[in-house]
Design goal:
Radius of gyration: 24 Å
CATH architecture: 3-Layer(aba) Sandwich
CATH class: Alpha Beta
Shape: globular
CATH topology: Rossmann fold
CATH superfamily: Alpha/Beta hydrolase fold, catalytic domain
Number of strands: 11
Strand order of the largest sheet: 1-11-10-9-8-4-5-3-2
Structural class: alpha/beta
Strand content: 15-25%
Helix content: 40-55%
Largest sheet: 9 strands, mixed
Order of helices and strands: HEHHEEEHEHEEEHEHHHEHEH
Number of helices: 11
Length: 375
Amino acid sequence: MNFRPIPNKLGRFTGEMNMNLLVILLLLALAIWVFERFYLRGGPGTIPAKPTDPDIYRVNESSEDSAPQRETVIRTVRDLTGQIKIAIDNHELRRARTIFNRIGEGREFASDIRPVDAGGINAEWVLAPGTDPSRRVLYIHGGGFIMGCPQSHRVITSRLSEVGGCAVLSIDYRLMPEHRHSDCVEDCRTAYRWIIENGPDGPGKARQLFFSGDSAGGNLALSLAAWTRDKELRCPDAIVVMSPLTDVTFSGASLRENYATDIMLRRIMGTLNKLPKFVKSWWVVWTYRVRPADPEVSPLMGDLANLPPTLVQASEAEMLLDDARRYVFKAHASGSPIRLQTWTKMVHIWQIFYPDLPQAKEAFDEIGKFIREHE
């Protein structure tokens, strides 16, 4: 009996299937990359060049006479951030928060501290002697959205009340990860609605209103200002932010360039800084439950026109320097009145070490001058 050879159709079919699967996987990978690059991260974007007006960006050189005080602060920050890093690595967030809050321990303040319910938000009024209760500051503390409270930032809020002659409302907004980032935002909006109608002595309209915050709190203050503009609500008369986080796509060059000189943030942000941009984007989506390029969480990515007069302060040595610079350059190019003041060799949020650091006094003097300009 003779047998005819049967063509190897199965092998040919399997090969075609493998090729088709490979093509599908490549197209899927390309689609995911495009989605991350142009939707999550918002595309390459362009930031205007540094303004030529020296008043828009002024660098203050730190005197060598302050080197001993600076070294003392650096030792304090190293010890503090080292303890926080260990607690976070051990998944002891409550302990990390307790350590962070110690930064304001042992201080005596001339200001009157009054706990208050600000429309359902725990808060406190900070009132330096002689402050005008109708001139109010809504202060939003930093701490990476996961730490901090009004007590931890009393050095800043007390001095802010003194130099501005304002009643400062420091709010205890809900923190991540127990709560979503949108809860932080909503608490700030609730406090804003409350402060324009209520002062330290009870109900009463705010004659003047300012927003202020540091780091993550600076992020929330800038986001809140843009929201009041977009909703056609009463905008603040001026804004003061210290080393604000403005870009949670984490694309600023100073995140890498200032890694070695940022004593405070490098231990906390070191691991994140090493991740590829693609991974960072998905980490933000998972952590913040929001698109990284959403202006609500990345104020730099939003429309920066028609914003109130704004003063931004930052350190030339910190990792968030470019978050401050790029925001200021873009806002200035958009026509908003804004200025940036930086100091060399300072730690992130060095203002909280007032009166130990001469540069902290200098920074608060500039803040007081700026607030008086916009009375």
